[in-house]
Amino acid sequence: MFKTGKTGTPSESGNRDAARRHPPFVRTGLTLVALGLFVTAAALAVVKPDNHDKLPDMFLARQVLALPDPFPQSADHFSSPFIHQTRIRRGDTLAALISRLDIHEPGLQQFLVHDKNARSIYKLYPGRTMAAGIHDDGTLAWLRYDHTPGAAQGDHYVSQWLEVKPDGHGGFTAAERSATAHAQTRFAEGEIDSSLFGATDKAGIPDAITLQMADILDSKIDFIKDVRKGDRFQIVYQTYLHDGKNIGAGRILAVEYTSRGHTYNAAWFQPKKGSGGYYDFSGHSLKGAFLRNSIKFTRISSRFGMRLHPLHGKWVKHEGVDYAAPTGTPIHATADGVVKFIGQQRGYGNVIILQHPHHYSTVYAHQSRFAKGLRKGQQVKQGQVIGYVGATGWATGPHLHYEFRINHHAVNPLSVNLPVAFKLEGRELVAFKQSTAAYEDQIDMLADLQNQHIQVASR
């Protein structure tokens, strides 16, 4: 025990005696122990300032901790490389990036510039990342350039990068790598204050998803003129992640929008037969079954009905409508369907016949050429380019001959009452309800939470 002076502090002689009795490292240990006891006492005082006798035994009992024997030593080196990463800036050069990544490999820059497998590094995109793994001895483990962090391929996103590694013989190898991104389902809700994009930005919804929402519901809502303050929406959508980073927006799975007391909803559904699309929660398609026009034409050159044939000079029934247009003008499918015929048919020349649900079919004749890769039995979507205007077959000039058939009988496409939208029926409707039930529940949950927030805010 230290001797104390009048002030209650250890006396100088007590200090000298203590210093002689304890070597420096022991003195340090005693100081730490004393400090630890002080902190513990302070902590106990905070927990139970006036009831020390009621403290749990775990606070009062003396704890003895056994240290491992032998005590583990620090590792001399790490087995995994240390990773340097940098973001490409405007005006960056390959030499600047190599220097910033702290890479010291003779011949690396020359290899990257000349090797044909490393050609993707020739274009440095500002904002993209480059990373390097460095061993503890300073040598390069690998170099990675994320030149395409998110590329849409059908319904998926793929991340692509260049990977460069030492070959073990003083040189390097380069190869392109790719991985499918992970799809993640997200939920959001919002209320219009000033604009649709302002509300979706506040809700953290990507702009690509906002554009999809406007496109899906555009037959119900004019998002330019009809959006009002106080409109509310709930949405379930997909995003794609790679290495923990968002690399792209997927599709909307379900959405509901309420404006001035009217509610509009939609859910994605992929029937077993036919292409996927959006339907309201009762199973009605949200897009018109047929477009009125297949091309952006300049004029109608011949209408449906009896006419004097321009080549044969006889009065015959014209079973379609002719749209005059320059050769090469794109021709669009007027509805979802399947290619029933593609090829040549006498006076039709190069012709495509599409079969649609409910006994409807359409004919596109006199084409100069077909869309690349299109074949019999292939499914096409409404608005998809299937060919190009020409003058093949019995034609006096470039135009599209378009027919609309019901049960194989041609009707006037300009006057017929086109089906506004298809409705799922039978097994397809049952499958739709089963597929979208979870989306509807999520939309309802989001709407309930939104109502609760509004009620709390109004109090």
Order of helices and strands: HHHEHHEEEEEHHEEEEEEEEEEEEEEEEH
Mean pLDDT: 79
How many strands in all? Answer: 22
Percent range for β-strand residues: 25-35%
Any overview of this molecule?
The protein is of the alpha+beta class and about 450 residues long. It folds into four domains: about 40 residues, no CATH class; about 100 residues, Nuclear Transport Factor 2, Chain: A; about 140 residues, Roll (Nuclear Transport Factor 2, Chain: A); about 110 residues, Glucose Permease (Domain IIA) (Distorted Sandwich). About 20% of the residues lie in helices and about 35% in strands. The protein contains eight helices and 22 strands. Strands 11, 14, 15, 16, 17, 18, 19, 20, 21 and 22 form a ten-stranded antiparallel sheet that branches. A five-stranded antiparallel sheet has the order 1-2-3-4-5. It has a five-stranded antiparallel sheet with strand order 6-7-8-9-10, with helices on both faces. A hairpin with a 6-residue loop joins strand 12 and strand 13. The chain is globular, with a radius of gyration of 37 Å. It starts with 11 loop residues before the first helix and ends with a helix. The N terminus is likely disordered.
